[in-house]
Amino acid sequence: MPERFARARLRRGAVCAALALVLPLRALAQPMGLPSMGSAADAELPPALEQMLGDAIMEQGRRDPTYISDPDLDQYLTAMGRKLVAGAPGGGTHHITVFGVRDPQINAFTLPGGYIGVNSGLLVSAGNESELASVLAHEIGHVVQRHIARGMTQQSQNTGVIIASLVGALLAGLAGSGDLAVGVAAFGQAAAIDRQLGFSRQAEQEADRAGFEMLRKAGYDPRGMVQMFSMLMHASSLNEGKGGGAYTSTHPLSIQRMSDIQNRVSELPPVHHHDDPQFWYLRAKLRVLQAVSRQERDDALLQLRQETTQGSAVQRSAAWYGIAYGYWEAGSYAQAAEALGKSAQDPSVVPETAVLAARLANSQGQADEALRVARAGWQRWPHSQGVAVALVDVLRQARRDDEAIKFVEPCIRQWPKFAPLYRLRAQSQERLGQKVQARRSMAKYYELTGSLSTAVEQLRQARDLTTDFYVQSELDAQIRDLRQRLDTERHLLERFKKSN
After folding, report:
1. Selection from 414, 447, 409 nearest residue 429 by Cα
2. HEC-encoded secondary structure of the chain
3. For the chain, which domains are there?
4. Which of the residues in the chain have pLDDT under 70?
5. Which residues lie below 8 Å from residue 141, measured CB to CB, with a gap of 6+?
């Protein structure tokens, strides 16, 4: 497992392309007069096209080992992002999705379509929840100010090459050629030429101020932004010339920016924000997850052991949880169970502990105990996507697929856009011989993850497997709708390509 992630870190794959993708967009975000795509109203990247670009990049990014596919983390980060964006002007109109990337560098980045990536190193380095929220608020500031959308319509020699490469790859992806990953990776390589450039000073200050207001309105401590800026500037100076300071290389900090935020904080009364316990548990898990070698994992466990004697009861409990997670991941189940027992001795319990307890019992062949723990966890946290997925996994591994499907149905009603549920339902349906339903479920999964051509293929297969006229009619209508969406996206891309 560690070797797999080491290779992934070297080649970076699609997520790396996404990381690199944001750099030229930021480099291009110094407006010098915006070109038109045919009318003054199109001076910025049209929202529909921007969303499509982000969806396509994320479709590839989710396949890379450095993408952290963790429901608990996704739900926590996206909830934080949406809480923050609610305080922005027109906050309800901005769609924000936050995800994690397995990378120890302190970094965060924004993609088209409101996608925001957070490196594991940023969360691990954050001293409290407000510090993490301050960086996320700054990134959301770039989204609401449409800095990327404006930057992508800049006309220059570099942008022409980059846009042509990206649009060509996306058009190939819409055709179902499978070339999208290669195209996006090539785009990421082209992006590296301007790695040293970031947003303009004005754009960075706009994002600071918008982020500061979001941070304040959401109830976080605005001092977290000052603390995080100080830490980032210190890390940048220590790593100068060593390839470090990733965040400051794309978000150049300055004394002027720091002073501006300090002055704003000084005008506010003190804020005493209470961190969500989940912050500490996810932080502990990511400390282990970002390790790609045995030595790094051992170092992470050593650091967590030191944290078991420091801080609040919640922080100590989270450290023991992180140790348990590390041992479980390494297959040392007895040690994992011992550490998890010490975590449970402290007063704070979060969904992550139930998920790990269920998975640990399953790994030890204790199917009944795994099911008991997962069901108890769901009874306590009926709004946790992580617990829901864990319970379905336990039911499926016990070959109780009928129960798994019955459980998934109300979960899908609660989270209709949570794609993993459709894939899990499809797996149980396939095992029960429900082949048409399984392909319809997989079609929905692919639709939600942005792979429309694959979704169409799944629906075609479902149609070929049934002779029911009414079912065939429903499938025909779904296929027609998806094809229309593909045609619309192709038209938008071709129009954008001609305008550049």
Report:
1. 409
2. CHHHHHHHHHHCHHHHHHHHHHHHHHHCCCCCCCCCCCCHHHCCCCHHHHHHHHHHHHHHHCCCCCEECCHHHHHHHHHHHHHHHCCCCCHHHCCCEEEEECCCCCCEEEEHHHEEEEEHHHHHHCCCHHHHHHHHHHHHHHHHCCHHHHHCCCCCHHHHHHHHHHHHHHHHHHCCCCCHHHHHHHHHHHHHHHCCCCCCHHHHHHHHHHHHHHHHHCCCCCHHHHHHHHHHHHHHHHCCCCCCCHHHHHCCCCHHHHHHHHHHHHCCCCCCCCCCHHHHHHHHHHHHHCCCCHHHHHHHHHHHHHHCCCCCHHHHHHHHHHHHHHHHHCCCHHHHHHHHHHHHCCCCCCHHHHHHHHHHHHHCCCHHHHHHHHHHHHHHCCCCHHHHHHHHHHHHHCCCHHHHHHHHHHHHHHCCCCHHHHHHHHHHHHHCCCHHHHHHHHHHHHHHCCCHHHHHHHHHHHHHCCCCHHHHHHHHHHHHHHHHHHHHHHHHHHHHHHHC
3. 2-273 (no CATH), 399-500 (1.25.40)
4. 1-45, 60, 91-92, 149-170, 173-200, 235-254, 347-348, 496-500
5. 88, 206, 207, 208, 209, 210, 211, 214
Q: Compute the C-alpha angle 354/356/361, nearest 5°.
A: 95
Confirm if 493 and 171 have CB atoms less than 8 A apart: yes
Q: Quick one: pLDDT at residue 187? A: 33
Please give the model's pTM, rounded to 2 decimal places: 0.84
| pLDDT tens digit sequence for 435-458 | 999 999 999 999 998 888 899 999
